[in-house]
Design a protein that fits this description.
By secondary structure, the protein is an alpha+beta fold. Helix 4 runs antiparallel to helix 6 (about 215-235), helix 5 crosses helix 7 and helix 9 (about 270-275) packs antiparallel against helix 10. The chain has helices at about 5, 65-75, 115-120, 125-145, 195-205, 215-235, 245-255, 260, 270-275, 290-300, 350-365, 370-375, 445-455, 480-485; strands at about 10, 10-15, 25, 30-35, 40-45, 55-60, 85-95, 100-105, 110, 145, 155-160, 165, 175, 255, 315, 325, 335, 495-500, 510, 515-520, 530-540, 545-550, 560-565, 575, 585-590, 595. It folds into four domains: about 5-105, 2-Layer Sandwich (Phosphorylase Kinase, domain 1); about 115-150 and about 185-325, Transferase(Phosphotransferase), domain 1 (Orthogonal Bundle); about 355-380 and about 390-395 and about 440-465, no CATH class; about 475-600, Lipocalin, CATH 2.40.128. The two termini are about 40 Å apart. Strand 1 (about 10) and strand 2 (about 10-15) form a beta hairpin. It binds adenosine-5'-triphosphate. Adenosine-5'-triphosphate (ATP) binds near residues 42 and 154.
């Protein structure tokens, strides 16, 4: 055992995460605790030889000193900046050679950005200045190859004197040329501050844990956008506390309400500048910290200057320093993020409008009564399309090669579905139902479906209590089928799928146990986009499981035996989570899932 692990000092036990006032670390005396995080404990200290002066001492709590040493090195060298906390001394404790690393820095007298916003209730001018200043600081650090990688309101302290932002906690920081300390796909961080591209990377490479996400300047700028959104609205654009999979979908696929939509006092240009930092595609964001700074400051110089003098929030009359936090809407994510259009080359023998008209007519004809119903009744109602053919499993000959498309997850789960209709109980199999029966006008059902819709739009869903059902038993994937999956280049791969391909932003589908089909979204390996997977759906009490044994290529119509099952984004459990409603045999699920090829159906 290394000496510092026992921490037995003069017979009494010492806990590095809970040092008491009076404890001595090196030549520093502890005065109190400033914060305890996942990696370190930060204490207010004074020098033994100059009492009365306050500093902050961060003591690493991690057995591996590498992270703490990296943080110290960054702060002492490349991350040096007037808006970055300054380090004065370093050491190890209790043993000066083998002990826990610590460093002593300025004690920032102030508050974290979000607390400052809600306690001091500054003006929009002050917030824009703070945001601009952080953006410029990031610009300088990025130019030196330094990335913060864990920017959040708690790591942006606003110094009381001068209302100046100070960046702290470079524990996850990185610099070009340094060997990576990250042992996971993404660096340590918080989901609601992760950029859409980081989440997409993780979803795409879940089977390659050795891969590391190439964190970039654009990720830091995105996180700055999240911090500023929180400051001016009192809410995160994608609030934490939701199911991680829904939060991931929201971050990657939905547009947050504009800051001005939440807090009407936010000046238009500031609101827009914050949204620009939150763009889904990194290339749509300001490219550098300096560019972000210009956008954040633009309104101060324009005709809007007066609006910037307003304070962020209304104060509650009679209760000084108590602000009224703007209301977060029940259905915040009404707008899907625009997707980059796939590059489809259409031979232009006819004018474009002819193609559009033909496509619309065909679409309406093929989509059937459900679509007409949507058009005429204004309902968004989806049930899974019927499986039209029985499955045979001849191995295809030609392998069509489709270019890799970026991973995309449909936004079904968060759409503004106004209605979900469960099929009638006596309806025969197949599993999936056709949208042929108009929704029942019964008030009870309407209320229930509205509740589901608002539940998903607000992303807080409760499952109905159901009898526990066993998950389907394990099954091996035959060896010849594995060989086919290898040829198709989908071994161990996961990509997206939908139950109902006729809609891109539907809410839910109702599925019934039995045979079913899903449609791939995105061409993984040699699977063509929109190909059909047929197999069996099992309805569990909390999740719906799917095992698919045949793939029919969308363009060529070739069929291949496969072993593919349903997952939901980067969930660690198989299946797709059920939404409220349904019964033992039918379930309401988002029209969104991942399909994953497997060697064994219980991997
Ligand atoms: N220089 C400082 N001056 C004042 N307070 C500080 C200072 N450094 C850290 N703190 C306080 O201590 C808290 C924890 O610090 P820090 O984030 O560096 O630790 P951590 O272990 O890396 O935490 P986390 O796991 O949250 O990232 C901060 O949120 C802040 O409130």
């Amino acid at each position: 055992m290394r000496r510092w692990e026992s921490m037995g000092l003069e017979g009494s036990q010492v806990f590095p995460a809970a040092l008491q006032p009076g404890a001595v670390v090196g030549r520093w005396r502890v005065l109190g605790t400033l914060g305890v995080g996942g990696y370190g404990a930060v204490y207010r200290v004074e020098p033994l030889d100059a009492p009365g002066r306050s500093f902050a001492l961060k003591l690493s709590l991690h057995p591996d000193p590498a992270r703490a040493l990296r943080e110290m090195a960054l702060l002492l060298d490349r991350a040096w900046h007037p808006n970055v906390v300054r380090v004065h001394a370093t050491g190890r404790w209790p043993d000066p050679v083998e002990g826990l690393p610590y460093f002593v820095m300025d004690c920032v007298e102030g508050m974290a950005l979000h607390t400052w916003a809600e306690t001091v209730n500054p003006t929009f001018r002050q917030v824009a200045m703070v945001g601009g200043s952080v953006a410029m600081t990031l610009g300088v650090l990025h130019a030196r190859g330094v990335l913060h990688r864990d920017l959040k309101p708690e790591h942006l302290l606003i110094r009381t004197r001068g209302q100046v932002p100070v960046l702290i906690d470079f524990g996850a920081g990185d610099q070009t040329g340094a060997t990576t300390l990250t042992t996971t796909t993404l660096p340590p961080g918080t989901l609601h501050l992760r950029s859409p591209e980081a989440i997409r990377f993780q979803q795409r490479h879940w089977r390659q844990p050795e891969l590391r996400y190439p964190y970039s300047e654009a990720d830091d700028l995105y996180a700055l956008g999240v911090c500023l959104y929180r400051a001016v609205t009192g809410h995160y654009p994608f609030p934490p506390g939701q199911e991680p999979e829904l939060l991931s979908v929201a971050i990657t696929e939905r547009l947050p309400p504009s800051p001005r939509g939440i807090n009407p006092q936010v000046p238009e240009t500031l609101s827009r500048a914050i949204l620009r930092l939150l763009e889904k595609e990194p290339e749509q964001r300001p490219r550098t910290g300096d560019a972000a700074h210009s956008e954040l400051m633009r309104g101060l110089l324009s005709g809007e200057a007066a609006e910037f003098e307003a304070h962020l929030f209304d104060e509650i009359p009679g209760t000084p320093n108590q602000i009224r936090r703007p209301v977060w809407p029940d259905q915040p994510y009404l707008t899907p993020a625009p997707r980059p259009a796939p590059a489809v080359v259409v031979p232009r023998r006819f004018p474009t409008w002819v193609w559009v008209a033909v496509a619309v007519c065909l679409g309406l004809l093929l989509a059937g009564p459900g679509t007409w119903e949507v058009l005429f009744r204004g309902w968004t109602r989806h049930t899974t399309p019927e499986v039209l053919e029985t499955v045979s499993a001849p191995v295809g000959h030609k392998l069509a090669s489709a270019p890799d498309r970026p991973h995309s997850v449909p936004v079904a789960a968060l759409a503004t579905a106004a209605s979900v209709v469960a099929p009638k109980k006596e309806e025969p199999s197949p599993v999936t139902t056709k949208p042929s029966v108009p929704p029942s006008p019964k008030i009870g059902r309407t209320l229930k479906t509205a509740a589901i819709a608002s539940c998903m739009a607000g992303m807080a869903c409760a499952s109905a209590p159901l009898v526990d059902r066993p998950t389907p038993p394990a099954e091996d994937c035959p060896e010849d089928v594995r060989a086919v999956m290898k040829k198709l280049k989908i071994s161990g791969r996961q990509w997206s799928g939908v139950f109902d391909p006729s809609t891109s932003d539907a809410g839910f589908v109702t599925v019934r146990e039995g045979r079913a089909a899903v449609y791939t979204q995105g061409g993984e390996g040699r699977v063509q986009w929109g190909s059909m997977l047929t197999g069996t759906i099992y309805v569990g009490s909390k999740r719906v499981y799917g095992r698919f044994t045949q793939l029919r290529q969308k363009k060529t119509g070739e069929t291949f035996p496969v072993c593919i099952e349903l997952w939901f984004l980067d969930d660690s459990t198989r299946g797709v989570p059920r939404s409220e409603g349904g019964d033992e045999n039918t379930a309401i699920v988002p029209n969104l899932m991942s399909v994953r090829s497997v060697w064994r159906y219980d991997e």
